[in-house]
User: Which sequence fits this backbone?
């Protein structure tokens, strides 16, 4: 320690004691402070004193400020007594390394020019004219842009004293993609001499679903889902067909929504469905369905509710559309009357209302239930479909599925003598399942 340092410390401690006495007296009588000059006036006076420091005072102890110290010197206006200066000067080595030059400059001003110090940090905060906020590091939460494409811009080193600065601009990615596919097998063997009779059957079902959804996290949502399913079956008792389809579906669902309140959206919904190939019955050469026979397109306008219940285990959508237009088309004229179209015509247009739900309930990591209810009515005819799939996940890629599909359609010209307008399909399968 040099000889100047004890003198400097002594002077600094003396100045602190001198300042504390009148400042404590001022704090004891807060009413009188209301009659003192306002904060704006004190700032104006201190600006004049600062000019004297930097320009007129030849014996000023303040050196020429460096580029790094310029932001810190803003604390000299107004000339205020800051509590932490002496604490850092006489504190630990870590504290002394932080802003040491600034603390030494302002402490020397306290000692050599005490008449310039017109207020304290505590008084300014107590006045309420300024807000005290501790320095908190700002964290960048990329959120939905974390996976977006990034573009970087490098500024020249002269723009910053510490070197180059790289600015990263992220493009928001409002799209999300998901899907799953499965390959299921069914086999039933019955020997020719089985005492109750019966026949052996073999079948295979492949299913694929793909989702492409847009969400700007503000007002707009656009959900798109493509479903494709094809199953082939072979049975010993069918002499007409070696293979025939047991499951056949192509369906596209698209919903464009604008948020109304909370989970409700004004929604324009389109559902289009057809199949891949011919549909037959056992030992019957008649074609009962085909690609584009029928083609069903439903366009509706209504409200969509986003379901997120049971802590996210039950999720999906419920759509109510009081205004809907339905288009039904068959390429094979022979099938017109079977699907409610007048004989000799390919298409039918009608207006009505649509109700649709598409939900998935995850009971556990091993069991989930996916259900879809579609109902359309013109108030003269009604078409209702309720698809239910329960999946038991036996391992990561192996699962078994139970599919139950009741249906009601009174648009058909012919009514079944046993079941009326009700129809039912169900199966149990085991096979491979993968979700991405």
Assistant:
């Amino acid at each position: 320690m040099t000889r100047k340092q004890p003198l400097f410390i002594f002077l600094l401690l003396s100045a602190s004691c001198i300042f504390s006495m009148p400042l404590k007296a001022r704090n004891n009588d807060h009413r009188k402070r209301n009659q003192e000059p306002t904060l704006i006036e004190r700032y104006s006076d201190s600006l004049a004193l600062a000019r004297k420091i930097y320009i007129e005072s030849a014996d000023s102890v303040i050196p020429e400020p460096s580029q790094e110290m310029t932001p810190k010197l803003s604390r000299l206006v107004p000339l205020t007594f800051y509590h932490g200066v002496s604490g850092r000067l006489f504190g630990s080595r870590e504290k002394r390394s932080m802003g040491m030059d600034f603390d030494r400059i302002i402490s020397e001003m306290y000692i050599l020019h005490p008449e310039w110090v017109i207020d304290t940090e505590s008084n300014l905060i107590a006045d309420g004219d300024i807000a005290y906020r501790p320095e908190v590091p700002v964290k960048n939460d990329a959120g939905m842009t974390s996976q977006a494409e990034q573009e970087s811009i490098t500024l020249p080193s002269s723009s910053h004293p510490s070197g180059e600065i790289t600015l990263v601009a992220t493009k928001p990615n409002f799209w999300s993609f998901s899907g799953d596919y499965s390959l299921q097998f069914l086999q039933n063997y019955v020997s020719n001499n089985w005492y109750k009779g019966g026949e052996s059957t073999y079948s295979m079902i492949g299913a694929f679903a793909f989702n492409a959804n847009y969400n700007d996290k503000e007002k707009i949502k656009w959900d798109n889902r493509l479903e494709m399913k094809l199953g082939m079956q072979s049975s010993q008792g069918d002499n007409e067909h070696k293979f025939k389809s047991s499951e056949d579906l192509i369906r596209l669902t698209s919903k464009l929504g604008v948020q109304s309140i909370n989970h409700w959206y004004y929604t324009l919904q389109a559902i289009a469905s057809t199949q891949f190939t011919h549909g037959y019955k056992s030992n019957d050469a008649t074609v009962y369905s085909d690609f584009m026979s029928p083609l069903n397109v439903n366009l509706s306008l209504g409200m969509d509710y986003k379901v997120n219940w049971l802590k996210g285990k039950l999720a999906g959508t419920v759509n109510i559309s009081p205004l809907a237009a339905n288009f039904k088309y068959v390429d094979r004229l022979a099938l017109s009357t079977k699907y409610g179209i007048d004989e000799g015509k390919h298409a039918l247009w009608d207006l009505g209302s649509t109700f649709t739900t598409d939900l998935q309930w995850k009971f556990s990591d091993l069991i989930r239930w996916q259900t879809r209810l579609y109902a359309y009515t013109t108030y003269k005819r009604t078409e209702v479909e309720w698809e239910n799939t329960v999946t038991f996940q036996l391992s990561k890629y192996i699962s078994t599925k139970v599919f139950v599909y009741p249906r009601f359609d009174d648009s058909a010209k012919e009514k079944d003598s046993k079941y009326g307008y009700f129809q039912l399909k169900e199966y149990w399968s085991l096979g491979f399942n993968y979700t991405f």
